[in-house]
């Protein structure tokens, strides 16, 4: 039987005597994969990283990396002996060393032990930090410090790389570019990575898998596509905030009915008996705009998102429904105007609770 | 608890025991029988001791509050001639211990003293003695202590004004307040914790002061402790007086600690702090501010310095009577030895606190830094009491040779008591350095493969270099000025500048006291100038 690369089994994640996340089990099957952990602030995402890094101990369950037991109630390999690198959210550069010295310390860790897959120059170029090399940590911005810290972590060529909100301080204009570069380098170096973030788009882009932590539990562990399209609970739907739940009644094998929208057709991902009352997940891209349609709803808000608009429409039962429209759409609807929805409504996969 | 027993526990425990010994000794001695001297004293002088200590305390607090806060207010908010100089010039008063100030005061105003000589040179021979005011007795002690200690209030108030109240002036202006109204309704109340912390330090130093009050022959609890031991050989009574004094001190220590916690909040506040341009004073106001600071600078520093310099020049033979080289070497010897021990222990327990995050260890550390609040006289006398008791009841019972000589009248004993007294300086100095290193820096280091020892040596020590230097200079400054512990515990024929000055002054040879006093002031001044940046907190962002 093939061993999983990282195996977390029934672990309670504890910090300061307080259990933050209970009874967590998940695996990263292959080396080089990236897992993104999503969850609201203060839920315990960082505690998970700290525990995997060995900075916090476990008193239940086990953590294994590459077949080697790192943490259990009986055993705890010290952080310095794990070859796991953690890039902290806050500036954790050594304050008395220049950025250059800080980053080069990363290369020292495995000097002579591992073949260098990336050198200092490449990493500097990758994160665009050549201008700050001779500066001290207090002389650079938070975003620059974060990039330098990331560079240092990568240079250690760890067996497991842990990134805590790695781009939270990076300028928006630069963020996407860094995301692309980070993804490339992680894949090139085959570094197994766990990234903690609260930005679901970042998680969906960078992760091979996503873990959703809510209410002290691991709620969902799945591919990004599945997490978005097939959320497994109302809590995950609410957390991702990418759609709403509307009441509906199952009318057949492939259909249900809502009082305001009428018949909705599609493939159920889970079977519900005819006549059941359910909560249907309606995401912005599920409905299509059609001015000729006789199903008209009132516009209460319109958000411009560059490539698209998200209209918020009010139904007769005062439900607020988001609808996605490409922004090159020839005409716009103002607030209080009527907005047509194409009928019959067809949803590729129907998610109900 | 034993599971966690390690070097950090043990070192913190040792220091805490060191601090606890004098307190426990004093407590138990309170119930011991004393000689008849106690009965005599109880009926005659005890109330006087307490009364004098009280009057001295209150007067010094009022004066240091006025001098300290007004000068801090002026240099923090206004620009006037030499205001940048006064900013650090006013802390030079630290270089003059109260007892040397007392010598200067007496030397200047005594009959046929320096004031008399000046008047004679200016106006010819005359009967000036009766017109020259005499600043001796309680008044002399109050002035000596106030001009020597006001810098505590000055430094802490100034830091608070700078870090916290700058925005308040703007706020006051927007509310239509006058400058004076802003001062007493906004700035002073906001700086209150810092001012109280400064005044508490003044109070502790005042109650602990031995040299100046002894010189002016004022009976206070401190001199009572010393005299009952030296003159009447009544260690038990000495400890009984210490008990009363410790009650005073503990009350102050609690107040100081409570207010310091709040003061710290102000110092560390992030954001909101805006260094504002100072207001330019002109005309009469500028002149008055300049005059006020000049007078304080003159009285607190230039006056004692020039008086000691004048006498050294006037009586040059004294320069050759004392062995300056030996005194300097003795001082350096004590400084190096004490600094070494203090730094090592403080580093270990600070690091221990940092890595173990243990509550018991934290409590032990807090306890161990309270030694600074216990007057040197009490520490010294309690140390002797404890060693005598230990020698009599443990060592001799076990049949070993007496250990008295090893600890009493030896460098080892002296360094041990210095250690307890100045541990808080070293501990807090290093702690404030450590507070600037984010804990994630340690964790990053572990994750880069550094062990705890390697993190300590390669990451902490280089970063703490400046803090360590600062601590060494601060300890040196304290040891150079320290009098009662050195006086009581020093080995036979082992003198420092402070003890030499004291002995000459107590033999009424003030001229002879001038040379060691002058050297003491000069060396202390150099140390203060080296640390002024730290003391004034200008290195902090």
Polypeptide structure, described:
The complex is a heterodimer of chains A (353) and B (541). Chain A folds into 2 domains: 6-236, P-loop containing nucleotide triphosphate hydrolases (Rossmann fold), CATH 3.40.50.300; 243-350, OB fold (Dihydrolipoamide Acetyltransferase, E2P), CATH 2.40.50.140. Chain A is 22% helix and 34% strand. Chain A contains 8 helices and 19 strands. In chain A, strands 6-7-8-3-9-10 form a 6-stranded mixed β-sheet, sandwiched between helices. A 5-stranded mixed β-sheet of chain A has the order 14-11-12-13-19. A 4-stranded antiparallel β-sheet of chain A has the order 2-1-4-5, with helices on one face. In chain A, a hairpin with a 2-residue loop joins strand 4 and strand 5. Chain A is globular. Chain B is an all-alpha fold. Chain B has 2 domains: 1-31 and 316-541, MetI-like (MetI-like fold, Orthogonal Bundle); 33-307, MetI-like (MetI-like fold, Orthogonal Bundle), CATH 1.10.3720. Chain B has 23 helices and 2 strands. Chain B is globular, with a radius of gyration of 24 Å. The model of chain B is unreliable at 262-274 (pLDDT under 50). The chains are: A alpha/beta (353), B mainly alpha (541).
């Amino acid at each position: 039987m093939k061993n999983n690369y990282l195996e977390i089994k029934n672990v309670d994640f504890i910090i300061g005597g307080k259990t933050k996340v209970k009874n967590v089990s998940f695996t990263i099957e292959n080396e080089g994969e990236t897992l993104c952990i999503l969850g609201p602030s203060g839920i315990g995402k960082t505690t998970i990283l700290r525990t995997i890094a060995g900075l916090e101990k476990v008193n239940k369950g086990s953590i294994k990396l590459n077949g080697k037991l790192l943490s259990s109630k009986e055993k705890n390999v010290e952080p310095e002996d794990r070859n796991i690198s953690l890039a902290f959210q806050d500036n954790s550069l050594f304050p008395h060393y220049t950025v250059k010295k800080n980053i080069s310390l990363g290369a020292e860790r495995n000097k002579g032990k591992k073949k260098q897959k990336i050198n200092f120059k490449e990493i500097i170029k990758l994160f665009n930090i050549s201008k700050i090399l001779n500066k001290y940590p207090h002389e650079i911005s938070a975003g620059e410090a974060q990039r330098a810290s990331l560079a240092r972590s990568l240079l250690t060529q760890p067996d497991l790389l842990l990134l805590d909100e790695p781009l939270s301080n990076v300028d928006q204009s630069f963020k996407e570019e860094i995301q692309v570069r980070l993804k490339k380098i992680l894949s090139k170096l085959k570094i197994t990575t766990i990234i903690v973030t609260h930005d679901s788009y970042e998680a969906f882009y960078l992760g091979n898998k996503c873990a959703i932590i809510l209410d002290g539990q691991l709620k969902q562990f799945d591919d990004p596509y599945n997490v978005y399209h097939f959320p497994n609970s109302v809590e995950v739907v609410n957390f991702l905030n990418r759609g709403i739940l509307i009441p509906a009644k199952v009318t057949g094998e492939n259909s249900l009915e809502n009082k305001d929208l009428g018949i909705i057709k599609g493939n159920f991902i889970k079977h519900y008996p005819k006549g059941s009352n359910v909560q249907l997940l309606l995401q912005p891209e599920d409905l299509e705009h059609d001015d000729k349609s006789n199903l008209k709803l009132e516009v209460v808000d319109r958000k411009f998102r560059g490539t698209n608009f998200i209209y918020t429409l009010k139904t007769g039962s005062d439900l607020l429904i988001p609808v996605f429209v490409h922004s090159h759409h020839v005409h716009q609807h103002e607030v209080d105007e009527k907005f047509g929805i194409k009928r019959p409504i067809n949803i590729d996969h129907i998610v109900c609770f | 608890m034993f599971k966690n027993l390690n070097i950090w526990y043990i070192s913190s425990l040792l220091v805490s025991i060191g601090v606890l010994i004098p307190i426990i000794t004093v407590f138990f001695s309170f119930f011991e029988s004393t000689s008849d001297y106690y009965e005599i004293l109880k009926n005659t002088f005890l109330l006087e001791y307490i009364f004098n200590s009280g009057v001295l305390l209150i007067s010094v607090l009022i004066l240091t509050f006025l001098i300290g806060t007004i000068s801090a207010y002026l240099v923090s908010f206004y620009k006037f001639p030499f205001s940048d100089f006064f900013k650090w010039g006013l802390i030079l008063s630290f270089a003059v211990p109260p007892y040397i100030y007392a010598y200067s005061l007496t030397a200047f105003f005594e009959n046929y003293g320096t004031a008399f000589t000046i008047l004679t040179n200016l106006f010819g021979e005359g009967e000036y003695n009766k017109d020259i005011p005499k600043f001796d007795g309680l008044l002399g002690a109050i002035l000596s202590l106030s001009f020597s200690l006001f810098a505590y209030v000055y430094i802490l108030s100034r830091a608070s004004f700078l870090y916290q109240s700058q925005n308040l002036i703007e706020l006051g202006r927007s509310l239509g307040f006058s400058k004076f109204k802003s001062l007493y309704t906004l700035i002073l109340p906001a700086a209150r914790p810092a001012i109280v912390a400064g005044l508490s330090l003044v109070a502790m130093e005042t109650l602990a002061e031995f040299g100046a009050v002894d010189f002016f022959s004022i009976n206070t609890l401190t001199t009572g402790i010393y005299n009952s031991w030296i003159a009447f050989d009544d260690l038990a009574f000495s400890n009984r007086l210490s008990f009363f004094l410790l009650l005073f001190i503990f009350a102050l220590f609690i107040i100081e600690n409570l207010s310091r916690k709040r003061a710290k909040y102000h110092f560390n506040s992030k954001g909101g702090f805006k260094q504002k341009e100072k207001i330019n004073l002109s005309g009469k106001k500028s002149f008055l501010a300049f005059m006020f600071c000049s007078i304080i600078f003159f009285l607190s520093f230039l006056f004692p310095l020039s008086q000691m310099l004048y006498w050294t020049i006037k009586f040059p033979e004294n320069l050759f009577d004392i062995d300056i080289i030996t005194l300097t070497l003795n001082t350096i010897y004590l400084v190096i030895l004490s600094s070494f021990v203090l730094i090592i222990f403080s580093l270990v327990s600070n690091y221990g606190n940092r890595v173990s995050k243990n509550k018991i260890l934290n409590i032990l550390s807090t306890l161990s830094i309270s030694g600074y609040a216990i007057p040197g006289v009490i520490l010294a006398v309690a140390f002797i009491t404890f060693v005598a008791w230990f020698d009599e009841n443990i060592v001799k019972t076990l049949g070993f040779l007496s250990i008295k000589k090893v600890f009493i009248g030896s460098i080892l004993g002296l360094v041990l008591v210095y250690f307890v007294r100045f541990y808080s300086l070293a501990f807090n100095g290093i702690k404030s350095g450590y507070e600037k290193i984010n804990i994630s820096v340690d964790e990053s280091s572990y994750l880069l493969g550094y062990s705890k020892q390697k993190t300590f040596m390669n990451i902490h020590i280089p970063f703490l270099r400046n803090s360590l230097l600062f601590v060494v200079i601060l300890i040196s400054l304290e040891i150079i000025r320290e009098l009662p512990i050195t006086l009581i515990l020093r080995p036979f024929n082992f003198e420092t500048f402070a003890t030499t000055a004291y002995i000459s002054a107590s033999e009424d040879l003030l001229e002879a006291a001038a040379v060691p006093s002058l050297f003491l002031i000069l060396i202390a001044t150099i140390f203060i100038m080296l640390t002024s940046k730290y003391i004034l907190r200008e290195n902090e962002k």
